[in-house]
Amino acid sequence: MDIKTILKNLSNLDGPSGYEYKVIEYIKTEAEKIPNTTNYVDNQGNLIVKREGKGKKIALFAHTDEIGFVITKKELGNYFRFHTFGGVDPKIVISQRLRIHTKKGIAYGVVGMLEPHLQTEEMRQRVLTFDDLFMDVVENSEYVSIGDLATFSSEAFELNEKYVTGKALDNRASCTTLLYTLYLLNQYVVENEVYFVFSVREEDGTSGASTSAYHINPDLAIVLDVTHGDIYRPGYPKIETGKGPVLDIGTMVDYKYFEKIKNIAEKISVNYQIEPNGEHSHTDTDRIQITREGIPTLLISIPLRYMHTPYEVVNIKDIEETARLLSYFIATGGE
Amino acid sequence: MLLKELSNLCGVSGFEQEIRNFIKEKIKDKVDDIKEDKLGNLIAFKEGKNNKKLMLTAHMDEVGFIVSNIEEDGKISIIPLGSIDPRVVLGKKVVIGEKKVPGIIGSKPVHLMTGYEGISSFENIKVDIGVSKKQEAENKVKIGDFVSFAPNAMLHKDWISGKALDDRGGCSILIDLIEANIEPFYNTYFTFVIQEETGLRGSGVAANQIDPDYAIVIETTTSGDNPEFPEARRSSELGKGPVITPAHRGYVNDEKLFNFAIKVAQENNIPYQIKRRTAGGTDAARIAITTGTPSLVISIPSRYIHSPMCVANLQDYQNTFKLLSIIITKEVN
């Protein structure tokens, strides 16, 4: 399985929250290449890939959606106003070309910045907010209506061979990891019933995965997401890219399973890192845990640099090692 | 029009080789003489009907950076070449040096910001080339390498967006004027100059070699016609035709040339606009101070110049071309 190509393709597809179907379709096609699987898309748009089995039910989750923007107002000419959903720093939106998904097709908008020649000293010192930004729609501006969604248009590429950089690696890195895990599972005799859920709508408020969890009602849910790598966070251990999967610990995680997966990692020599979470992990885990009568959960994170920017960075080795750990862990029945 | 291709080449000030080679290849068989001078200016000559000399100039360089240091953690420190607002560089792809090593300018995740974090300065802006050790980085890049915004041009129906439109727009127009095979009135020197953005370093040297009677600088200039910016403070507007400059930093444009350009535009029904700000200097100032040549600036209006994502209007481009294509066939009067 060509992980890098899959990750780059997934990054280049656009799937803002609620509009993930292109991403779902691609994953479905890739999943169908892997033997011993069936799949279906549920009412909400979540893709559920199933591996039949008799033992306990294990479900793995990765959200497919990405952060984005919504067109909020038309100004004079081809200028539009916009806001964000999912948490984007307005500073990194400046001078980007955004892809606008209109009902009639793609439009392109440039987030403009006044030339330095024309700025006053006061303007130079200003930190711009979304209220100050505007989009200059240079292609198909006549297609654009209020409410259309937009995404970054940065194209993924390999950084020093070891890394892939591009948009939406949060959480397409995890989607790639799940596909690779599914692929690796065929190396083992697996007794359990295993579900791979490629879910919608995490960035706008975690409504996709939790409903799938309700539907599947697994004995163990493993959520894959990304976490901040290579940046100093006061009071936290330093999480680094290239140092293996991050096992999250905190109130949303089942401590028994946490110990088990840690032991498995040690047994098969997968380097891992531990990240503490307080009350919230800000992932689908928080919701899945309290679904139905309660579901034991694990949260595994892929370390990533520059989260929610047009060029997030992921180390391919982390994807490989996470999949190696997960496939073994599932094959041994999560024990 | 080769503007998209030209935009996608990398020619940060002092590193114009790629632009020069491209232009030379395109025009060398279509001019009477062509030479490259000691600093790297490209000077092409076409004979006219009159022995007086007209110098047409566009600058090949674009704003960018050079590598100023390689840090212990493998990150690349940069210093700007030309005026760049640090707010336009976050979350962008760049390429470094002749090998075009790709890198990105990352940004702190919004989740980890404490309160309202301000504007980064270039001291804090680093390029990530995907290495974690200084030694590893040194195998790929070295201090003094150029750092250019990555090629990103897109041609739309009415517009073009991309980096370096300032002044590949001017270069493209000069190439189009040569391609159009117009017989010029004066002996005409199509001059593609270096290092405008770092202090107008190429044009004076070129003027010394030509000693022109007239000079016209073809630029891509500012506009400010966005919703945030009051109309009274704009310098030009897109869609309103070529911008003719009366005066800018360092030079009041030659009265005779200024009136002549307006007259040609009016007589030929070409839309034009007078530049409404004096901010920013051009090679006209350098040429005037070097050889005393009467000079004029005619520009394609553009938005967001000196950023990785500029915008220009293709109608303005065509009208700028049209105006110049007539000007060069006429005697200045």
UniProtKB/TrEMBL annotation, chain A:
One GO BP: proteolysis
Which Pfam family is one of this chain's hits? Answer: Peptidase_M42
Please tell me whether the keyword Protease is annotated for this protein.
yes
Which Gene3D superfamilies does the record associate with it?
A: Peptidase M42, domain 2, Zn peptidases
Specify whether Protease is a keyword of the entry. Answer: yes
Q: Which GO terms describe its molecular function?
A: aminopeptidase activity; metal ion binding
Q: Which residues bind Zn(2+) 2?
A: 170, 203, 308
The UniProt record gives the binding positions of Zn(2+) 1 as 63, 170, 225
Q: Note the SUPFAM superfamilies from the entry.
A: Aminopeptidase/glucanase lid domain, Zn-dependent exopeptidases
Any idea which residues are catalytic in this one? Answer: 202 (proton acceptor)
Q: Which UniProt keywords apply?
A: Aminopeptidase, Hydrolase, Metal-binding, Protease
**Which cofactors are named for this entry?**
a divalent metal cation
Q: How is the cofactor bound?
A: Binds 2 divalent metal cations per subunit.
Q: Which family does it belong to?
A: Belongs to the peptidase M42 family.
Protein name stated in the entry: M42 family peptidase
What is the organism field in this record?
Answer: Dictyoglomus thermophilum
UniProtKB/TrEMBL annotation, chain B:
Gene Ontology MF terms in the entry: aminopeptidase activity; metal ion binding
Quote the record's cofactor note.
Binds 2 divalent metal cations per subunit.
Which parts of this chain are annotated as the region Disordered? 221-240
The cofactors required by this protein are:
a divalent metal cation
Note the Pfam families from the entry. Answer: Peptidase_M42 (PF05343)
List ligand-binding residues for Zn(2+) 1: 59, 166, 219
Q: Which family does it belong to?
A: Belongs to the peptidase M42 family.
Q: What is this protein called?
A: M42 family peptidase
Q: Which organism is it from?
A: Dictyoglomus thermophilum
